[in-house]
Structure prediction request, 265 residues.
Amino acid sequence: MPSALINVPAKAKRGDIIEIKTLMSHIMETGYRHTASGDVVPRDIITSFTCRFNGAEIFRADLYPAIAANPFLTFFTTVTESGKFEFEWIGDKGFSETASASITVE
Amino acid sequence: MAHSDHTTRRTFLGIAGSAAVLGAVPVVIVRPAEASPAMLSAAIRNIVGEANVRTGKVKLDIPPLVENGNTVPMTVSVASPMTAEDYVKSIHVFNEKNPQPNIGNFYLGPRAGRAQVSTRIRLADSQKVTAIARLSDDTFWSATADVVVTLAACTEEAI
Prediction:
């Protein structure tokens, strides 16, 4: 099962503003919950998300425990050329995931 | 007669005052991990520094009443032409009563085309949510929304 879901239009016209939707499956454990025996459940969250287009950063986010489980982010970008979006999620306990999507600009 | 009435009222106010104090103390003990308004303003100062934060330009879309604080959809948009000269550098979202005042920081650039970000957040209590945008001329603009939460996030026990 893929852990990331990406929604990028396959085609767009030059100069269009497109919406990018991303969802990464992750528990986003806050570090504020306790087990029945009273132990703190250690924090385990995604702390950073980056989106690059043809190598250049177009969007970045710092995430905190107040972001809901399975972080869902949508944002916009202007497309000027065909290319590849690369997505990267980095988090606690060495969490690191990447995904990519291509777009054809006419 | 008038004198006795006065004493009674004073006694009553005294008792009511102590009751209010007693009532307030357990609330503080029950929620030790709550961000205070001081933490919120410290978190905001951390981002904006000494700059003035003005109200306007920013639109914070969040339901006024949510049943489940574990996942609350939120959209922040900023009125900006998003040109190379005039664009939104970043959007920062804060809350009043979660254990931590920060929710997220989002960094955009002129090529975003539209200054709008959506995500889903957690709210531990009914509270205010504040979004602050930093524009390319380093001015800060904000919007605040009140949210009533019936089922709070973070309070349930993990299994």
Summary: Chain B has two domains: 1-30, 37-151. Residues 1-30 of chain B form one domain.
